[in-house]
């Protein structure tokens, strides 16, 4: 029976720890969280004028208003599909530059599928409701915010957080979804823009949250490890 000497630094626990550190380093190198959030923030903020000027509003003498948000349907489906494509390309290029494989495809596919579902739901609603009903149950309003573009952005980010095993992104996405679902449509502003401002302000807040998240993740990425 022969014995072999273990090379210096060959302690199994130390080797396992080094492998784990290497795996964590690879996952960090694959992350472009800040870029994804930046793209989504730009898409959200740029969409405000489309929704503003693409909204048809007709107010009646009794004070009630009927409106249709056609700008959302014209802008958001192609904008989101292009955004997810741009994010996927940036991840793939960054991974190839480091000699790594990119795992961003499930996120891009999820985002595209959610975009199709959002579009179908909003088209169905536009065909079903000739005008905006006076009152909705609170559960319907929450569902409406969830399938709105800024809501499905958060749902897709949950997939990205899972792919990246990124706890920070998971916590950020949870906070973002809480903001997107909790913001009231009527923000109580007394402005000359009326109903358009009621819808633009929550969208503006969601865009700013995404932008701040992008800046935060970019700053964290630049810190020495």
Topology:
Layout: H1 12-30, H2 33-53, E1 55-59, E2 65-69, H3 70-97, H4 105-128, H5 138-146, H6 149-164, H7 167-182, H8 195-222
Antiparallel strand pairs: 1-2
Helix pairs in contact: 2-3, 2-8, 3-4, 4-6, 6-7, 7-8
Transmembrane segments: 32-53, 73-92, 104-129, 141-160, 167-187, 199-218
Keywords: Membrane, Transmembrane, Transmembrane helix
Intertermini distance = 46 Å
In round numbers, the mean pLDDT is 76
Bin the helical content.
over 70%
Largest sheet: 2 strands, antiparallel
Q: Can you tell me the overall shape?
A: elongated
Task: Please give a handful of descriptors for the protein shown.
225 residues, 72% helix, elongated, mainly alpha
Short description:
The protein has 225 residues and is mostly helical. It has helices spanning 12-30, 33-53, 70-97, 105-128, 138-146, 149-164, 167-182, 195-222; strands at 55-59, 65-69. Helix 3 runs antiparallel to helix 4 and helix 6 packs antiparallel against helix 7 (167-182).
Write up what this structure looks like.
With 225 residues, this protein is mainly alpha-helical. It has one domain. It contains eight helices and two strands; from the N terminus they run H-H-E-E-H-H-H-H-H-H. It has helices spanning 12-30, 33-53, 70-97, 105-128, 138-146, 149-164, 167-182, 195-222; strands at residues 55-59, 65-69. Strands 1-2 form a two-stranded antiparallel ribbon. Strand 1 and strand 2 (65-69) form a beta hairpin. Helix 2 packs antiparallel against helix 3 and helix 3 packs antiparallel against helix 4 (105-128). The longest helix is centred in the middle third of the chain and has 28 residues, at 70-97. The N and C termini lie far apart (46 Å).
């Amino acid at each position: 029976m022969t014995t072999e000497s273990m090379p210096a630094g060959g302690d199994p626990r130390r080797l396992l720890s080094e492998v784990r550190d290497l795996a964590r380093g690879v996952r960090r190198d694959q992350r472009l969280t800040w870029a994804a959030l930046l793209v989504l923030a730009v898409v959200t903020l740029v969409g405000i004028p489309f929704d503003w000027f693409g909204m048809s509003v007709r107010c009646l003498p009794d004070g009630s208003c009927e409106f249709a948000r056609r700008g959302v349907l014209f802008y958001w489906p192609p904008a989101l599909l292009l955004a997810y494509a741009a994010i996927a390309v940036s991840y793939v290029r960054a991974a190839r530059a480091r000699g790594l494989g990119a795992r961003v495809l499930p996120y891009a596919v999820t985002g595209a599928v959610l975009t199709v579902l959002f579009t179908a739901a909003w088209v169905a609603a536009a065909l079903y409701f000739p005008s905006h009903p006076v009152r909705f149950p609170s559960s319907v309003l929450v569902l409406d915010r969830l399938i709105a573009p800024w809501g499905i952005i958060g749902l897709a980010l949950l997939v990205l957080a899972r792919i990246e095993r990124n706890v920070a992104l998971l916590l950020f996405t949870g906070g973002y979804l809480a903001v997107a679902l909790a913001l009231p449509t009527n923000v109580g502003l007394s402005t000359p823009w009326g109903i358009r401002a009621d819808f633009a302000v929550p969208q503006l807040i969601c865009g700013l949250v995404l932008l701040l998240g992008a800046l935060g993740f970019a700053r964290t990425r630049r810190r020495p490890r």
